Amino acid sequence: MICLGIESSCDETAVAIIEDGRKVLANVVSTQIPIHKKFGGVVPEIASRKHLTNIAFVVKEALDSANLTFKDIDYIGVTYGPGLIGALLVGVAYAKSLAYALNIPIVPTHHIAGHIAANYLTYPELKPPFMSLVVSGGHSHLIYVKDYTDFEIIGKTRDDAVGEAFDKVARVLGLPYPGGPEVSKLARDGKFTYNLPKTKFENYDFSFSGIKTAVINIAHKEGENLRKSDLACSFEQTVTDELVENCMKAMKDLKIKKVVLAGGVSANLVLREKLQNASKERGYECFVPDLKYCTDNAAMISSAAHYNFISGKYYEIEDKLDLNAIANLKIEEE
């Protein structure tokens, strides 16, 4: 079964074509980073307009790359939440019109389920159940993946997502957008010399607002004497420690032996190494996605859509026009 997947939840216009949920035939991403860089972050209205301009061309490029035509597509997978509502609506509207014109099913797909499914593309042997540490600009979740379409949130951030914290720290340090990779790059030249707060709760929740505020206060206090690389290193080491420690605690308590890293921040090399080492020490299996599948892409959406499709979670021709985008969609509601 061939799926054409569409992802437009933020500032990447992405289209992929996947066979049976695991074999990537095409994966095309049109990034808007150069456009939003001068604003220091994503401008939702601009992102939506660029999606409108780009999407038809990206679909054509994906079909050409896979050496396929629309007649070869069995169903459409599309991100319908969470994300920027205007950006989501572009992808959903295009997917609905395409599915209607081709008279094929449309499979609404959760963005975070897509990030988790990125690991299915990297590891053909990977199967649920497992724990997933989901880390991105909008999410910091521990999710128990009971089955391909059955998710339970075990823990989550109570304030900032870790990716958001990285971006805010980048702005404090005067680094360009996107901030996360720039903080990591700067941190390589630094040392762990600043004592920054870690938050611990009785459950498995996270909090990153305290460390973000601490970084801001140190930067303002030290001014020109600030050791930027040391502060970047201290921040990165502290937040990755909190993520891994919480994940290991949850896995131990719930007796889960397999962990999957997911989300845009899964590209962070320090986090990847720490999670792999902590898992190895405890005899757990650890899976980290290929770097090309860490940031937003449609291959991951197509993979997740495959499992929704075979589970019967899709719209046929008579009801697919009812599908709408949901900006704050919860993964349990998928």
What's the short story on this structure?
The chain has 334 residues and is α/β, with parallel strands linked by helices. 44% of the residues lie in helices and 19% in strands. Strand 1 and strand 2 form a beta hairpin.
Summary keywords:
alpha/beta; Nucleotidyltransferase, domain 5; 2 domains; 5-stranded mixed sheet; 10 helices; globular
How many domains? The number is 2
Strand order of the largest sheet: 3-2-1-4-5
Biggest sheet features: 5 strands, mixed
| CATH superfamily placement of the largest domain | ATPase, nucleotide binding domain
The proportion of residues in beta strands is 15-25%
Assigned CATH class of the largest domain = Alpha Beta
Low-confidence stretches: none
Quickly give the structural class: alpha/beta
Counted beta strands: 10
CATH architecture label of the largest domain: 2-Layer Sandwich
Please give the oligomerization state of what you see: single chain
**Helix share of residues?**
40-55%
Radius of gyration: 20 Å
Query: What integer is the average pLDDT?
Result: 95
Shape: globular
Order of helices and strands: EEEHHEHEHEEEHHHHEHEH
Through-space gap between termini: 22 Å
Tally of alpha and pi helices? 10
CATH fold-level name of the largest domain: Nucleotidyltransferase, domain 5
Describe this structure in words.
The chain has 334 residues and is α/β, with parallel strands linked by helices. The protein contains 10 helices and 10 strands. The strands form 2 sheets. A 5-stranded mixed beta sheet has the order 3-2-1-4-5, with helices on both faces. A 5-stranded mixed beta sheet has the order 8-7-6-9-10, with helices on both faces. The protein is globular. The mean pLDDT is 95.
